[in-house]
Fold this protein.
Amino acid sequence: MSKTKLYPLKININGVWKKAKVAPEESLLKVLREKLGHTEVKEGCGKGDCGACAVLLNGKPVNACLTLALQADQQKVVTVKGIGTPDRPHPLQESFVKRGAIQCGFCTAGMLVSAKNLLDENPNPSRDEIKKAISGNLCRCTGYKKIIEAIEEAAQKIRQTIYDKR
Amino acid sequence: MNTHILPQPFEYVEPQTIDEALQYLSEHKEKVKIIAGGTDLLVQMKIGKVSPPCLLSLSKISALRYVIEESGLRMGPLTTFRELQMTPSISKRYTALFEATKAVSTAQIQTMGTLGGNLCNGSPAADSAPPLLVFRGKVKLMDAREERILSLEEFFIGPGKTALKAGEMLTEIELEEVNERTGSAFKKLGRVSADLSKVSIAVAIVRKDDLCKECRIAVGAVAPVPMRARKSESILIGKKIERSLIEKVSHQVSQEISPIDDIRSTAWYRREVVKAMARETIQLAWERAAS
Ligand SMILES: Cc1cc2nc3c(=O)[nH]c(=O)nc-3n(C[C@H](O)[C@H](O)[C@H](O)COP(=O)(O)OP(=O)(O)OC[C@H]3O[C@@H](n4cnc5c(N)ncnc54)[C@H](O)[C@@H]3O)c2cc1C
Ligand code: FES
Ligand code: FES
């Protein structure tokens, strides 16, 4: 088999432009994990069902396992690490820890990405809206209850901050 | 089955315009496969069902991503479910289509999946198909030399089969005009909300006073292609809508379909459950046409 041609990729991850040489058949997930060191993005099913690989692409949630790296060329990606840092965690990250919404933690990176997108679009979601927003993120540990509560709590915190700023 | 890698290498091209894309398609025909959102195609490639030597990505062709309302509705095939949902003319007037885009799987799939990909994949369970059928959707297919326009009914040929020829591309989806007397609704039944449909149904009704002036019913995942249930429609047309009549229609819908047993459901269950779904959806479309 002939050697696959590699193409230059330039991609903004969590605010930093990065470069890599990638083959067309490499998924965004593979390149993030294996070429750019972003192992915080997880791989579960590899076919769009579990959401472990969810990242924000230009602000919207996608499954990186079903995105070709080249489709993300010149675009902006945010992973769970871009949502907040250990020193300055996002309210969602705080609530997830505080509320016990993380057990094994495998789903967490994707879960937070979906939750972040929800709260960006709707800071006052109903329980049903929360469930719908995370329906593409499977969790085998928590039973979802604590995750939903953590998202509700974070939403409240965010609304309070917006209110305080006024 | 290893779904973690795309097992076969392939070439990748990313034209900027429709003309460039059509030119490339005409030169490479069967060797090239179009990729839009990739949510159907990449899964099929990962499981080894298809292994095209070349992918042509539409993602840089912004001229394929639009919704324009003028008399009817014209939509570019690259428009995603999420973008369709955000379009006021769809949420206000093409209610069945709006509800179908909301019913597609998860937030991620709604962000990635496109209308064109949903249709061109040719799945009998494609959620956008029943609503587009009840709004008498037409598709524009182009190759490097000419274009043709087909009704959506002519477009669907069998499971995974459409009227698209090698070298052709879907470039527009057009819906007919609706007015304030049109009411429509969509319902889908899946195992969980993130799943493909076991049965889906869309209804559009045009009301004049107490009479049903026009009625269109389309069902998905219950036949080799998404289909109109014309005999069922004809029972309602010109009639006063009453409970007993809706009951009769829902039984006719169940007769008219040709479901199979598959991983998602059984033929028997589909015939039974479609009755209840037809009842509810007709009722809802009728109420919406009134208000
Ligand atoms: C986890 C998961 C859940 C899903 N749930 C649902 C669901 O609930 N309901 C549903 O309906 N679907 C569902 N799907 C299927 C899929 O997401 C949709 O069918 C989607 O609309 C496909 O669009 P795409 O842009 O991703 O298509 P792609 O995968 O890019 O393309 C699909 C096919 O269409 C062809 N194609 C695309 N655009 C064109 C064009 N303009 N001209 C000619 N050919 C073209 C491609 O060559 C390919 O054969 C699901 C998929 C996954 C992975
Ligand atoms: S790994 Fe991408 S959705 Fe499961
Ligand atoms: S915490 Fe283990 S999968 Fe969610």
